[in-house]
GspL cytoplasmic actin-ATPase-like domain-containing protein
Amino acid sequence: MPSELAGAAVVLVLPMELAGYCVIGPIPGRRPSRETLGYATEDQLAAPLEAVHLAFGPADEEGRRKVMAIALECLRLLMSKLLQQGIDPIAVYVDADLLNAERACALWFEGRWLLGGSEGACLALSAQAAQALKQKYASMPWMAEAGSTGAGDSSQPITSAVDILMQGNAGAVDLRQGALRRRRIGPAWRGLASGVVLALLMVCLVDHVRTQWLMQQASRLHAENLRVLQRWAPEQSPDGDLATRIRLLEHRPRQATTLEQLALLSEQLVGVGNVVIERAESTPEQGWRVDVVAQGFDDLERLGARVPGMRMEQGRQADQGVRATLSWREAE
């Protein structure tokens, strides 16, 4: 990090890929608290409210507000690394939010398309994704510097993408709010040029921070998945590739339920005929024990032939026919 940036009035611009965006409707009261605004945003978040840092824009004429969201742990780690270098940004913005035109527009910046404007769009798209979107929104301005990679898909050439972003600061949402608001007050936008330069240099640092954060999340999810696997399949070893073990478990033959086993036995009884169940019970240790009445022993022999694993524990001739107790370990 350049040493001359320490102590300078720096504006930090983060890539849209790190942030989320939404709009909330009117909130009662002249100056609603951050807690109230947060609860109004909660149902649009993909993460728990306590794990996200929210920044709110001012209310428009209809009372709606822009909301920028970023993982709290990721932003704290990034700000901590900057403060260790003596850099305390006077403002933190998201690049797509700096596109503050009166209508939706797109800008080629740092190898991808930024979508922004006052009509509710705030996205970062690859060139391939933008191609599909451009067919639907051909009338929207697609801006790119002459000679840049995105110039071929541009409908409006520009001199400098950085200048376009610098012009949009007035309507952008500053992420330095709430617990992350800046304590020291300095001249707003002094040294903006150095801030934009820092934004370009920060791409590598942000990638590093984001990679660290994603690796931490991946490790946490892996540990949670292992705990779930051990709970539902305790015979599985925690070593080896987790995805492979899960695929093997998915293709493992499913154990028939008690109702399915009883239904299978009933089907065999219908096929044999002349056999009636009087009582049936099942235990994990002994399997099925079934008391039946048949017209003759030959009916029981046919039933045993149709149901592998079934054996007769006892049988006797009675007035109604043959009473027998059958045991059946497992339905095949």
Summary: The chain has three domains: 3-211, 218-236+239-250, 258-328. The CA atoms of residues 61 and 133 lie 29 Å apart.
